[in-house]
Task: inverse folding
């Protein structure tokens, strides 16, 4: 039996550490990072937007791996983790969409653009939502774990294909936007800060995944205990 | 191998018999697609001749996608009556034979919907007098169908156990199949508007469609066994 | 022989069965009893392979002592409250499908004598007449005809007498007798005990033998 109180304290400590690190990164990015030549100060949202987008896509890979694990190892724990990874993924896709939209307004002049990455993120959000609705619409048990895992594998493997096709679709209709020249033209300082922010965001994602999985397992064991109380 | 083929044939024959007895099941998606095309005609109004191919492609594939979704989501409906699906699970059936028989019937029903849809939209939407139908377009449509079929069977098996089947199926199915829709539309566009040929497309959109199709077919074949195993 | 060792089953955290061990031997009728909710139907569906046991093992031993790789080849299941028949197909097509799936003879010569036993061998019933328009008793008789045709050594019967008239019960008893004489195994759940009284039946009470509590 795990000592719940000890685990709680550990989770809290890790959470404070992770968010303090992220806060520091964002503070530095807002205050000390050099302004962008073309976009001025507005571009700073990149330090939030890009890391959350990458974390959102990483979650789909995590979901696929955990789902495969559920299928091959028949592990109920992996199933709980898969569900948590989809929830974390949904949070980050929504964050990406919101920040992308806020960034798009001053730079592109519109709230939404059918940019390949934004479009794929939108589809990813739909898929995460679909996965979560599907999971919650079934009664708990190995059957649900297996069906959700099958869906998780499909979603995880489809995301790169969706991304590829949407990118082609955009580039056939219009040249890639100037604003997204990215990488090579970026100031080395900016790249460093961006990478640090990315690490911070992935850590937040990992912490959320961990906390939520513990939470879901606890929920399951409470339910189990309430049943055993009933039957005695 | 002998049992495999015998089981495949038995299950396929059963599916054909049930579909044949129930004309509504394959007729209603067809009627739906006819209605959709009429709606497109009404909403677009008069179109300049140069836009006709584009409109034709968009309307045809969108219509086909919707009506195929209706047809796919009901693949396992006959098996749900009187606990037949469970009884099949108590028989020593090869999951691959089971999956392939469902896949075959889905493709057959799909052709039954797709071919008239292509024809009807050429008739109603293409008022230029010069038919847009050609072999390349038929091949593209068939490839799209082959890719979609596998996913259709698997998702419809998954949704059997779900309480929110009506909303969930489209919610998951459409985002997953965006690559197929895009490939089909873009390939047709390249052929009808830009005058490209199939060999050119194999290195781009059609290639993606083939990869998608092979990947999903394999994946769904493997996963289907997981879905019919004991709980 | 069907060997069940310390079988356990949990559903949504509820323990339905635990520590259940028994053998079903050739030429024996095992009558599963117990009050409502004691897990009779659950046990049958686990044995049929519809649900996976949470603990314990189920083995089907072949006459030579080895264990069957897939016990479903030797077991035929008759579910309660359903007949598992395709409503849109006629009686012959239904039976042919199930026989072909087991790789058995599906010719008219093989099927019709059994249909005759169950009073379904009439041209208007046999063919071109979809099963969904059958009466309750007719559907049940067709499902029992499938059971008889399956030629499996182990039968799992969940309320097999439901919807049968006196004549049907009589046919059922004859069939069961034949199965016992050919050293078949029968595991049965039934509230209607009278028709079973003429057989030697071993009872298994789930309330006493099937739960830890």
Result:
């Amino acid at each position: 039996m795990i000592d719940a109180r000890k685990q709680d304290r550990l989770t809290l400590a890790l959470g404070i550490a992770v968010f303090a690190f992220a806060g520091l990164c964002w503070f530095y990015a807002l205050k000390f990072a050099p302004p962008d030549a073309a976009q001025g100060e507005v571009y700073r949202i990149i330090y939030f937007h890009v890391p959350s987008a990458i974390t959102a896509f990483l979650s789909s890979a995590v979901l696929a791996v955990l789902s495969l694990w559920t299928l091959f190892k028949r592990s109920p724990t992996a199933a709980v983790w898969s569900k948590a990874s989809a929830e974390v993924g949904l949070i980050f896709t929504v964050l990406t969409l919101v920040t992308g939209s806020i960034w798009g307004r001053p730079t592109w002049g519109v709230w939404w653009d059918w940019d390949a990455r934004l479009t794929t993120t939108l589809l990813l959000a739909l898929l995460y939502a679909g996965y979560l609705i599907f999971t919650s619409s079934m009664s708990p048990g190995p059957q649900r774990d297996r069906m959700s895992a099958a869906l998780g594998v499909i979603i995880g493997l489809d995301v790169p294909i969706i991304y590829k096709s949407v990118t082609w679709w955009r580039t056939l209709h219009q040249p890639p936007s100037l604003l997204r020249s990215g990488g090579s033209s970026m100031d080395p300082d900016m790249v460093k800060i961006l990478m640090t922010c990315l690490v911070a965001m992935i850590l937040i994602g990992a912490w959320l995944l961990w906390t939520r999985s513990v939470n879901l397992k606890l929920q399951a064991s409470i339910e189990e205990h309430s049943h055993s109380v009933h039957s005695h | 191998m002998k049992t495999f083929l015998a089981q495949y044939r038995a299950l396929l024959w059963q599916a054909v018999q049930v579909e044949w007895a129930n004309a509504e099941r394959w007729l209603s998606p067809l009627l739906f697609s006819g209605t959709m095309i009429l709606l497109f005609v009404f909403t677009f109004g008069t179109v300049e001749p140069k836009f006709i191919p584009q409109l034709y492609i968009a309307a045809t594939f969108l219509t086909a996608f919707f009506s195929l979704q209706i047809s796919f989501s009901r693949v396992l409906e006959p098996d749900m009556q009187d606990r037949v699906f469970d009884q099949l699970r108590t028989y020593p059936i090869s999951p691959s034979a089971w999956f392939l028989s469902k896949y075959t019937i889905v493709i057959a029903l799909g052709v039954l919907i797709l071919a008239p849809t292509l024809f009807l939209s050429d008739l109603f939407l293409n008022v230029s007098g010069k038919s847009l139908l050609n072999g390349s377009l038929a091949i593209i449509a068939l490839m799209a169908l082959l890719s979609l079929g596998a996913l259709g069977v698997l998702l419809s098996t998954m949704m059997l156990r779900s309480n929110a089947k009506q909303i969930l199926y489209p919610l998951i199915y459409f985002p997953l199949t965006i690559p197929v829709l895009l490939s089909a539309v873009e390939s047709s566009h390249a052929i009808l508007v830009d005058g490209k040929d199939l060999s050119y497309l194999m290195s781009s959109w059609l290639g993606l469609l083939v990869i998608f199709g092979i990947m999903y077919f394999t994946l769904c074949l493997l996963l289907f066994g997981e879905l019919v195993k004991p709980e | 022989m069907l060997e069940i060792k310390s079988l356990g089953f949990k559903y949504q955290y509820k323990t339905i069965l635990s520590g259940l061990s028994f053998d079903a031997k050739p030429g024996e009728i095992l009558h599963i009893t117990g009050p409502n909710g004691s897990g009779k139907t659950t046990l049958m569906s686990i044995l049929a392979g519809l649900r996976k046991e949470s603990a314990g093992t189920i083995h089907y031993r072949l006459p030579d002592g080895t264990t069957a790789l897939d016990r479903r080849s030797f077991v035929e299941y008759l579910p309660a409250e359903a007949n598992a028949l395709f409503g849109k197909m006629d009686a012959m097509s239904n039976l042919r499908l199930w026989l072909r799936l087991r790789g058995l003879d599906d010719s008219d010569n093989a099927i019709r004598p059994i249909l005759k036993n169950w009073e379904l061998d009439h041209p208007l019933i046999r063919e071109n007449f979809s099963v969904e328009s059958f009466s309750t008793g007719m559907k049940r008789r067709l499902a029992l005809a499938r059971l008889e045709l399956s030629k499996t050594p182990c039968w799992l019967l969940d309320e097999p007498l439901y919807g049968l008239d006196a004549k049907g019960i009589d046919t059922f008893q004859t069939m069961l007798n034949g199965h016992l004489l050919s050293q078949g195994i029968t595991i049965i759940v039934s509230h209607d005990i009278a028709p079973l009284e003429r057989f030697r039946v071993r009872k298994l009470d789930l309330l006493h033998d099937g739960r830890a509590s």
Summary: Residues 42-175+185-217 of chain A form one domain. Confidence is low (pLDDT under 50) at residues 174-184 of chain A. Chain A is about 80% helix and 0% strand. Chain A touches chain B through 33 residues (CB under 8 Å).
